Amino acid sequence: MTDAYRRYRSPDAPVPARTWAWNMYGAGLESIGRDGQPEEFDVPAPGDDQLLVRVDAVGMCFSDVKLIKQGAKHPKLYDRDLSREPTRLGHEVALTVMRVGAGLAGRFQPGQRLALQPDIYQQGRSTAYGYTIPGGLTQYHLIGPEVLDAEGKSYVMALPGELGYAETALTEPWACVEASYTQRRRLAPRSGGVMWIVGQPGDATAYRCSAGLAAPATFVLSDVPPGLAADVHAEARARGAQVIVRDGVAPAGYAELRAAYTRGAGFDDVIVLGPRSAAAVGEAARVVARRGTFNLVGAAPLDGPAQVDVGRIHYDYIAYVGNRGPDAGASYGEARNRCELRAGGVALFVGAGGPMGQMHIQRALELAGGPSVVIASDTNPVRLAAMAARLLPLAQARGRQLVPVGPGASLADAIARHTAGRGADDVIVSVPVADVMAEAATHMAADGMLVLFAGVPNGTYAPLDLAKVYLHGAQYTGTSGSAMADQAIVIDKALGGQLSPARSVGAVGGLEAALDGMRAMMDGRFAGKILIFPQLRGLPLMSLDELARADPEIAARLGPDHTWSADAEAVLVERYWTP
Is the pTM of this model over 0.85? Predict the structure, then answer.
């Protein structure tokens, strides 16, 4: 450890009187900073319930592009006048506590290193750090109750061990990746909710529901066979629940049911008995509530793919569950609804060359009991080649097979070759295009899992074969953001050597390079993540290869396979930090 790096890490590290920041005053890159440059402000003193923190590293995230393009119209800014109340990008951060307000003494100490979970909610409203709360593209700033005590919850985590600054910042995007394989869907009927059960006229199947009828406060029954209807009425009488019978409702009338019995919020739980019409199933799926369950029970396939709101799979966590029947209750629970990659299976990653696609692939390769074959598809040959160069050595070290498939090659042939025509066990899509999502789903095995990691707006529809859900146990899932628990898992894995966040670093830059970093991120200039170190001055944006060529000592400190490391970071601080 160099003297400069030791002083930088010290609890007594100096705090200047002034700080530089990249504030955002409106939409467009031209509204970030002033005349393309950061601005200088006084370093504030913390109040009793505040911390003064130093920002050590910031990861550039593609989710910021929407904020850059929309400005105050972004849904997390609530039409705020940014010209008078600017915000700041940078929600992937590594922080160090520099000064502690009197009311937080004993809870925090100078020199303490923090990771931050930006997905903050208060009174049911997102107040995310890096959006509503100005983020980390500054050298020093205050954090207070808006982060440390948001409705009784703190959104910072003290690091329990040694991680580099870049690694710490990357625990947030890595948490989003981890969250993709953590059960987020509600897999049981909602207690006190509204359940709609819709059958088919003339269906004489003896359906039952061994689990779930004890939960709803209201049942709406449409053409439900007599046996199950009698069970519902008996359960409702025993609990004082309400039963409403609305037979003969055509798909065109499903929206009216939602309006009449859920105040427009949607049914918490929908059970479709004996489905045959893909169009009717698609209409029924439109009326399920956020975080609702959509339970399909039947033994015959649909007459085609259903039009499904793929935005809601990602953002609203709709759970599509099902089974062949006759027990509707058998659809629920985690035993039938997996969320992790299939052990020893074949996983397909679409959009594999981007930073997040690479992170998904790295996780699959490092996952104990993960897939044996990873097929990586991307339309950008340069990014795909960079991914292969970065991750093929890891695949070989872990005894896994990594198969890059670029433009001009047949993805269908590659999947057929490695699955004997069965289809991929898992399909993970990191491309926010509905047509790409729909096509990717066609490569999935009958009992496979589709993970929509990239988000498209709610109201974006794509054809999906929902018959696979109830006939074969297929999964259609998606997640948005992450939680503290996900980030804690990533930190534990990183400290335990099970995950290497630093492998994701593709380029680094200092304070002045932040705007160039945003452009590079938007242009896809680098295959890996871009890390900005706000404390470092005069460091231009450089790929790791460029940095290694410019500085042999840093090159010598890089990790296996020419990846970023805490040792290389220490030399970078020595070169570019001025106390």
Answer: yes
